[in-house]
Amino acid sequence: MTILGVHSEAGKLRMVLVCRPGLAQRRLTPGNCRQFLFDDVLWADQAIADHAVFVQAMQSRGIEVLEFQHLLGEVCLRSDARSWILDRIVNEAEIGIGMLRECRLWLEELPAHRLVDALIGGVAKSELPFDARGLFGGALEDSDFVIAPLPNLIFQRDPSAWIYGGVTLNPMFWPARRRETLLAAAVYLFHPRFSGMVKTWWSGVDEPPCRQTLEGGDIMPIGQGVVLIGMSARSSPQAITRLARTLFAQRGAQRVIACQLPKMRAAMHLDTICTFLDFDFVSIYPAVVDKIRCTSLYPGDQSGQIRYQRHDEPFLTVIAHASGIPSLRVLTTGGNAYEMESEQWDDGNNVLALDRRVIIAYDRNCHTNQKMRQAGIEVIEIPGAELSRGRGGAHCLSCPIARDPIPRA
Predict the structure, then answer these.
(1) For residue 211, how many other CB atoms are within 10 A of its CB?
(2) Is residue 396 flagged as an active site residue?
(3) What percentage of the chain exceeds 90 in pLDDT?
(4) Which of 22, 205, 238, 385 gives 20 to 30 Å between its CA and that of 366?
């Protein structure tokens, strides 16, 4: 069996979790897309086809690709797993009391694949097989959602993230995404591929919403016990400190580097402006990366304490020294000033390493991809016209579950 754990950003990828587009993306409209954190409406059929190309590109390299909806469907065959999920979704806080009983009974009786459609694709009032009563049900239009869809679930990087030998189940920033983490937790808890074999560093599933928010696009284990975590609009300093304390207490990491990003849409997560092509080679968007400021967190002298070190050096210098090398090779977004800004927006720097110097990138970022090839990187292009509308590239679309460390000479 493949040993679970992610020990680098660019070592050989062995196993990865993805979630194909489907019903949730078909629910996006010009009127609701921003509510679901999309800037535009996807052509769902094309997004499905393009995602299949992404999956095939990884499988052709011998990578085991797990599909989230398939795993969740197998989980939903178990009555105890159904109860665990529905207890957290179909309750007074979410549904109200007027139709709580009818909704719960209906969902409990659905075949597993239909329940997955409901949990990910959402349930509109018009799809209920009973009269939606109560204050909540009575206030809804037929096209309004009783259970909202999760179109961002295609970006598997965010709800859960592997850090060396364990996983974090992340308390997401936006309410529109928080249920994603619950479903990820159900897969890790109940699916036979993971049940009883997963070490959880931190689970935010049953915690009330608070200022401790964390998303996987900000998390990068870069090897040698070091973890980069972007302190972005979506990952708070409170969450980073809490995760660092947990990692140190369980010897899951030796150093956490909090990377403070400027507050701008282009810097949604750390991986939107910096990803690794090799352990000593990064692709960056300099207009944002040059503004990052770093603070290292180390275990303190006593249990539970943390020692902080604020760095005056630039981000890339801090990362190089943490990696045990004098400096990093740096590749910047390609093109002139206009093309650089456009290609970063279209995830030109958000690439997924399948192995050292072998990456998957969107085909639309032609200037950046050309620069990578000229630098000796093997670039596997996938169609990006539709998938990029959600503001996420190959790195965002994937949750590595097993990745090798990179041997150092």
Answers:
(1) 10
(2) yes
(3) 82
(4) 22
> Three-state SS for 331?
strand
Q: Residue 106: what are its φ and ψ, rounded to 5°?
A: -65, -45
Cα 317 to its chain centre, rounded Å, is 26
Residue recorded with tokens 């969107």: 362
Chain-centroid distance of CA 44 in Å reads 20
Question: Cα separation of 116 and 273, whole Å?
Answer: 33
In DSSP terms, 381 is beta-bridged to 361
Distance CA 178, CA 170 (A): 9
Chain mean pLDDT for the chain: 93
Higher pLDDT, 28 or 94: 28
pLDDT digits (tens, 9 = 90+) for 240-250: 999 999 999 99
Q: Which of 33, 259, 274, 396 is catalytic?
A: 396
Percent of the chain with pLDDT over 70: 99
Q: What is the pLDDT of residues 117-147, one digit of tens each?
A: 999 999 998 999 988 877 787 788 888 899 9
Q: How far is CA 29 from the centre of its chain?
A: 23
Summarize the confidence of residues 64-82 as an average pLDDT.
97
End-to-end CA distance of the chain: 28
Residue 171 scores a pLDDT above 60? yes
Question: What are the structural domains of the chain?
Answer: 13-66+151-403 (3.75.10.10), 71-147 (1.10.3930.10)
Give the chain's largest Cα–Cα span: 68
Tokens (6 digits) for 246: 């947990």
Q: Provide the Cα torsion 241, 249, 178, 67; round to 10°.
A: 130
Evaluate whether 284 touches 349 at the Cβ level (below 8 Å).
Answer: yes
- Rounded to whole angstroms, the Cα distance separating 12 from 296 reads 27
Distance CA 131, CA 138 (A): 9
Which residues lie across from 18 on neighbouring strands? 67
**Per residue in 74-109, is it b (16+ CB within 10 Å) or e — as a string?**
bbbebeebbebbbebbbeeeebbebbbebbbebbee
H-type alpha helices, 1-43? 23-26
pTM: 0.94
What phi and psi values does residue 388 have, to the nearest 5 degrees? Answer: -70, -10
